[in-house]
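USER: My hope is that you can spare some time for a protein that puzzles me. I am handing you a single protein, as its sequence and its fold in token form. Walk me, if you will, through where the backbone shape changes along the chain. The protein I mean follows directly.
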Amino acid sequence: MSISFPLLGKKHRINLALQGGGAHGAFTWGVLDYLLEDGRYQFDGVSGTSAGAMNAVVLAQGLMTGGCDGAREALAKFWTAVAESVPITLASQLSDETGTKTPLALTLLLDLTNYFSPYELNPFDLNPLRDVVEAQIDFKRLRRHSPVKLFVAATNANNGRLRLFTNREMSANAVLASACLPKIHHAIEIRGVPYWDGGYSANPAVFPLFYECRAKDIVLVLLAPSDLGKTPHSAREIQQRAMEIGFNNAFRREMRMLAHARDYVSRSWLPLGRLERRLMNARLHSIEADTLGDLPYESKLAANLAFFERLRDMGRARAKRWVQANHAEVGRNSSLNLEAAFGGY
């Protein structure tokens, strides 16, 4: 890996909101890799869900131990370890390099989850990702010395409420809870409370970046396409579309409420209070994975290093285009038209 040399001058402090999407999170790896290599950005708060939560804590771990270059190395090490955690005979079947083909083995596995729970298919709760997370992250040190504010979203499986884990309570269980797909994994219990994937309640949660962080620029790294494509007709396609909508409704609702609130405040003649000033001073930006919509839904469960690296390269290229087009706006104006992207009723 090449060593980056940050450009001289003032760094822009930004917050990151990292969306989940399983293996597609390797796209976010690429986005982060480019921003770290560019060297003109300093991260204040990072909110993540599922794969976004993984990227968030690995980013924090790397920054804590080795700065920008340490974070780039940590992200590469993590995604390589995820690919290697799957037995090679199975990994070769789970995805091709392009991710456009759905292998028979994965199709059969997903079909089984429609009839058997993970408590029946995996009674011993084997989860290779736990071994990777625990080996890669020093959670004890991260809780005390993380250089960024972390917000990891999970969903209470018994009432559907959002649960945000912050620096002082960060753990392997918190990160695994954020990525716990209930049809594949046992619920993750933390202090007796069972948690499922954070995507059901926030994908990701943006509000803590407003309330808890000093940086006014928030960069959304979005994996879900804004246009989901043609209307599904087959039973499998309908089920997958319903899951996609379900995992992103909370985020879209939050952004729509934010758009409406900013519009309402902008039309008020009364002096602005603290909350109103925060809303109006926030600057929103978006780096979207605009090409991932062409991949089959099952590719989110891929575990293939060549596929991960392809997504990483796509993320780097997309981040580079965003920086070239919008860097001058960071610290000054929003580059995302919130009302156009998320407004309406």
About this structure: The longest strand covers residues 41-49. Confidence is low (pLDDT under 50) at residues 1-8, 88-94. The radius of gyration is 20 Å.
